[in-house]
## 1
Amino acid sequence: MALRWGFVSAGKICSDFAACLRSLPEDHKVVAVAARNLDRAKEFAKIHDVPQAYQGYNKIAEDPNVDIAYIGSVHNYHYEHALLMLQHGKHVLCEKPLCLTEAQAKDIIAEARKRNVFFMEGVWSRFFPVYQKIREIVGSGQLGPIKIVIANFGDCFLDVERVCKKDTAGGAILDKGIYAIQLASMVFGGQKPISVTSSGYLLDTGVDGISSTVLKYPNNAMAVLNSSISCDFPNEAYIMGEKKKIKICCPLWSPTRIEISEDEKIVEVYEFPLPDIKWDFNYRNQSGMQYMATAVGKYIKEGAKESPIMSHDESILLAGIMDKARHGLGYYFDDETPPPSL
């Protein structure tokens, strides 16, 4: 029986994910969509052949035909929407970043565990074949001890209001930096960094325009993670060991190619074509969301409550790292208390 999805929001990312689910009709079916505006929900339903359109997200939570809720709403609503769905016993896949703070992440994970349902933060990058190959290569030890991860993700989004406002949880770290941070965390096995420091600047709106976050790990290892909403970056990443290094070719968040180098020479190349889905996607390489959909369906079929590739504990860890990175720049939400000035 196909896993029945209810969509919390009818935005662009939801449209792309719905197209990926529709490419797997034997295993997945979008049965409902909700938006604040009913006309928008109906338009989405018409485009994606969804039988039920609702005004108001509580309708998804209350719909007995929905097995799992996909939360694709704006960042600042993730906490509210995730708790609503979990409290009604739904499995949940929530877009990243999971929420605004580590405290909120802990609340969500605690609720998921209490309800004994599947929950995962939708870090779709983790499910790409390239990321699987990276885990294999790093785990094999052929790079030698990993010394540094360098990742850059930046696009000029100054004309995107949501990304530039604090009340919609904008800024470079929350919108872009999550991808670089999760990569470093994956490479270093989900270890908690010894320290988190950051530098950058805030826009007039109070969110970070450009940020550089440095994570220090045991054994003299580190990660340098740069993110931007003020200008374009090369959007590549490097994993450097004592023997060899991996280059994750652009786009690092949804890559199809990596290069392994030794002594400044490329010695191996791995390429993985994207799923061939006939759809006009809103964002780059979005057909790769199919990988995540397949994994989630498998987990739920097996009765799993979380993913070993993107675990509950790691979602909490990532939220905590982003808290420290934001605070290092002076980016605090209204319900956070900055330390007293010296």
## 2
Amino acid sequence: MGSWYSSNLKEKHVVIVGGGYGGVAAANHLRGKCKLTLIDPKECMHHCVASLRAVVEPGYAKKIFIPYKPAFGESFKRGTVTEIDVATKKVVLDNGEAIHYDYLIIATGTTGGFPGKLGLDMKDVSRAVDMYNDMLQKIKAAESIVVIGGGPVGVELAGEIKTDLADKQVTLIHSKSALIDGPFTESFRKSTHDQLVALGVNVLLDQKVTNLSDLENAGWARCTVETEKGNSIKADLVFLCVGMKTNTEAYENTLAEKMDDRGCLIVNEFLQVNGHENVFAIGDCSSADDEAKMGYTASLHAYTVAWNIQYLADGKSLTAYRPPGPLMVLPIGRNGGEMQYGTWVLGSFVARMIKSKDLFTRRFWGEMRQSVPM
């Protein structure tokens, strides 16, 4: 944030609910400038950007969980926020403890399917590491694998499997006519599609899966995937990479009228929750950046909010958040990928150098003042 900070903020208490990319970025910006509390149910940040590699590379699972305590010390509190009381400016944890705030940043994120995300009930990191290691063994034992969903997670998972375990039969099914939704160019999508095909992924487009509920109930058992066009694909493993659910549990009772139809908190141009000057929402649980919910945009939200909290403390005008425009670096295994910046499509070499090789793992361990475990 630069060297300047508000002396008026020094004695103020900023509480951050959620230790994902947005919450950690906000905590890093505000560290040392105020009284700070970062709250998360887990003892470690789940570096989910790299989580798909953990199901193909032995030993990688331990690298996607970064402890909070070494980074934030006593400013980190492990717990689940069950209530936000904006009238009395406090959050309440599942053990009944109340924590009062002057400024609140809500960064609760989203939940999706494993292995891209973890469920809210998965709070034990050692169990989570075991889950990734177990899935790696399941993928190694499988012959036929189906990935449902042609968004970034589905594309990345198919790419990771075929890059590291080329003998697997991998089918990617997407309900739309092109991969990757959002404000991306035809060239970006075509490159993504062509790289998957070159790896040997069987890409089925414009095909809706008709037995999703059966597949959800099947767990990781062998099953058959049916599509509306009559395709029937037997699979040893099926991964559902469709749909993210906003984590609303912390605020759905007291801020229900501030939620949109996806459960995101509706914010103004300063990322304040509508009607609440001292409450901000960032990342996936914010209505900002509708078409591009990514760790990168969450970190931009955090930067804007950290400054705006300082401006509020000083009684100054706030700065509006400016969306960055289309930007995606999409790994397709460790050796491929594609990148779009604005309308420029920059190719697999740039994507590989920026993200695919390391998936930002070293960077995020460094930002949390630790070294990547070997």
